[in-house]
Each structure stands twice: as structure tokens, then as C-alpha cells.
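INSTRUCTION: Work out how this chain folds

Fields: amino acid sequence; protein C-alpha cells

Chain under study, with its fold:
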Amino acid sequence: MAAIHTENLSRSFGPLKAVDALNLDVAEGEIFGLVGPDGAGKTTTMRLLTAIMDPSSGDAWVAGHHTAREAEASKENIGYMSQRFGLYPDLTVLENIHFYADIYSVPRRGRDARIEELLDFSNLTPFKKRQAGRLSGGMKQKLGLVCALIHTPKVLFLDEPTNGVDPVSRRDFWRILYKLLRQKVTIFVSTAYLDEAERCNRIGLIHQGRLLAVGTPDEVKQLMRGVILEVRCAEPRRASRTLQAHLAPGSVGLFGDRVHVVTSTPQQVAAEIEAALAQEGIALQSLREIAPSLEDVFVSALAAPEGKETADVPQN
């Protein structure tokens, strides 16, 4: 049985379709990443799956319970960490955890052992008497995670949990998530970070409320239309603007200090790149074909014609 199952799940706000006919299955004990830019529908999807919001149409089941007809039973089996998790800054780490344990009706018997286990699990034991308001951003996220886990949920929902957190804390947070997998917890995480999506077992690319592709990161990369030419030069921003003016619309993207060009005719386009840069006096350092990243695939998917259905990925 899937831990999460949806059938044409939709939510509209007036004329805006925030989630549009979402069909998705997430297996028990996997990390599934919902990936998309701001406004893509990630948070609305989370709220529908956690029974915080009713759908306009369609259905969803989480841990075997219908999210609308069996909302309370569904909530008992999930943990949810929103973008702005409600920690109380004047309470200590330990007091915050007990507060959420009371909300989830965690029995007093065995509670202290569970709390100590989670504190050790998240490396928060040395800080359990510190006020939450005095924690770093990364430690606040860890505390939020502990509070969401206090009642031992079957499915954990994390809405952009590392947004605004430093890279070291992000890495530590993901180490904790991998530990949870060994406990057979299903994790549904939304993120705008494409490098984090690489850490998931499977991902779904979402844009304007619709799934563009679903599969493992490697499977999704195989959906890349054409090949990627990587351009390196001393003036990448200027080079990007120049190539955007000379090449096909939507085919040029700036990725840090490199320019990526998507094409189905690499030899012809390589010659056009060299000519365009030479005309503008931009020195070309290197030009080569590279394997696509998830970011390349996502940018390419956004350029697909309107109304394109969710892409099928090859199954191993």
C-alpha cells in the first residue's frame, strides 16, 4: 500500500488553480521530493495532504486514510513541519518538545525516553535548556523536526525545511532524514533547491500546480530534450545576454559562472556560439557537451508547450 496516494487532487482559489489534477503515489519508507519554484503549488499540496485544507476536487489518502473524510485519523499518523514552524521563543528546547507532546497526546509513560532519543538523534541534547529564540537557524529547524516527530508519525511532511539555512546545517538536517528512513518513516519534502532534490529517492517536478515529471533523479534527467553545451568565459553574464540574442528562445541559461545552451544540433550551435562571442569580443575559454543536471531538466521542462502532460520516465 502506498503511504500517499492521490487521484486528480485539485485546489482552486477563484480562477487560480494552485494544484491541478495531481496524480501521485509515494511508497512507504521513501523520501519523495516535490520540487518547484516559489508559487508552483508545493505548499498548497502539503496542506491538502495534511488535511489542513480541503480539495476543490479529487481525493487523497495518507497512511491509508482519506484526508477529507477521515481527517482526524489521517492527522494522527502524520508529522508536519511548515515553512514557519510554530516554536515558542521564550520556551526552552525541552519545554517546546513537551508542549508538542501534549498537543499530540503523547502518553507520559515513556515520553521522557522518547524525548531523550530524539534529542540525541538530532544532536540537540547539549541545548535542551536553551530558549528556542536563542538557537541558530539550523538548530531551530532541528527542533521543529523533533517536535514533528514526537508522536512517532508514519508519514512526515516537510515544507521547504532548509530554506534560509546555511549549507552545513542543511547537510546535517539531511543526515537526520536518512536516519529516519531506517525507521521506515515516509518523508515527503518540498524544496526549491535542485541539489537537495538529488538526495531524494524520487522527485516530482511541479510548475503552476501541475506535475511535469516524476521519477528518480537519474530517470528525470533522461527526459532532457537535446544536449547541453557548457560555455566557459571570463564574462558569463555578458555571454549569456549575447547568446540569448542569437540563439533559440529559452535555450540559454546562466548557471553560476557558466552558460548552458540546450540544443538538438550541437555541432551547428557550437559554431554559432563561437561566432556570436567572437563578434562581441568575448574570449571563449571552453565549450563542451556535458550531462544535464536536474536544474537543466527543470528549466527545459518549463519551456515545454502549455498543457503537456506529466512526463513518463523509463523504469529500471
